[in-house]
Specification:
Elements: E1 4-17, E2 20-33, E3 37-41, H1 48-56, E4 63-68, E5 71-72, H2 78-88, E6 89-93, H3 104-112, H4 119-132, H5 137-140, H6 149-161, E7 167-171, H7 179-194, E8 198-202, H8 206-209, E9 214-219, E10 222-228, H9 237-250
Parallel strand pairs: 3-8, 3-9, 6-7, 7-8
Antiparallel strand pairs: 1-2, 1-4, 4-5, 9-10
Helix pairs in contact: 3-4, 3-6, 6-7
Length: 252
């Protein structure tokens, strides 16, 4: 029995500009397994974020199909896609887009209340997630402008998890953070994955990539190679060397 949670069939994405067509994804076949921490790497312009958005239903493919748990999502209406994303997906971006006029806890609860109208239950889960992500209670009532970049990003992860998604999609989640805050965000995503949720992350950062158990290397809209690293273990030099050797082979 397949353990796949996401599959694609001949996935293509083309953009048109000034009468010219740019083929960003080209006949891409891919399978993502449940519980995996999949990392997508590649040079700038390779199509990494485009692939992430197609997999998550945030963008529709030009040709080909995307299946989530056996259900084709690429041809759903915009309204049905919004419901699908709300019920199945969590999103972590480089910029978290927290609402400035709401506290950290209220930002998280706002997403939860779209699914569960029981305010007390949503507040309880929001507080549990913030505690799990090492955000202390006094910070919960602060506004986004009053917290550090790392705290805001971890709050974004809590918001992504509030509806218990099956997959968390992360697009360069540490790109705007310093080393310490970036490490805290990676720890949070690793913990999310260890709790059983699938994670798909786009990154250009070697330290971030080492958190994945599967590395996909995308170039010119095609997967040129993949590397299996196994589950993350801190301080594993073998893991570090294996990833470096793979990326060198890919011409990274």
């Amino acid at each position: 029995m397949s353990n796949a949670i996401l599959t694609t069939n001949k996935l293509c994405k083309t953009f048109s500009s000034g009468g010219l067509q740019q083929h960003v994804l080209k006949n891409l076949d891919l399978e993502i397994n449940k519980g995996d921490f999949t990392v997508i790497m590649g040079p700038s312009g390779a199509g990494k974020s485009t692939l992430l958005y197609a997999l998550s239903g945030m963008d529709k493919p030009t040709l080909g199909d995307v299946y989530f748990g056996g259900r084709e999502i690429g041809k759903l209406s915009n309204d049905k896609l919004a419901v699908f994303r709300r019920d199945n997906c969590g999103f972590v971006f480089q910029q978290m887009y927290l609402l400035d006029n709401m506290s950290i806890l209220d930002n998280i609860m706002a997403s939860g209340l779209l699914v569960n109208k029981n305010r007390k239950a949503v507040a309880k889960r929001g507080k549990e997630l913030l505690a799990r992500l090492n955000i202390d209670e006094p910070t919960w009532r602060k506004f986004p402008a009053q917290v550090s970049g790392g705290e805001a990003q971890r709050a974004g992860i809590a918001r992504a998890l509030i509806n218990n998604p099956k997959i968390v999609f992360a697009d360069e989640p540490t790109g705007a953070l310093n080393s310490a805050n970036g490490e805290a965000v990676l720890d949070a995503l690793t913990e999310v994955n260890r709790s059983g949720q699938s994670v798909i992350m786009v990154t250009h950062d070697l330290k971030s990539a080492r958190r994945g158990n599967r590395i996909l290397y995308l170039r010119d809209g095609v997967i040129h190679g993949e590397c299996e690293l196994g589950r993350y273990e801190s301080g594993s030099y073998e893991r570090h060397d294996k990833l470096n050797a793979f990326l060198s082979e890919m011409g990274w």
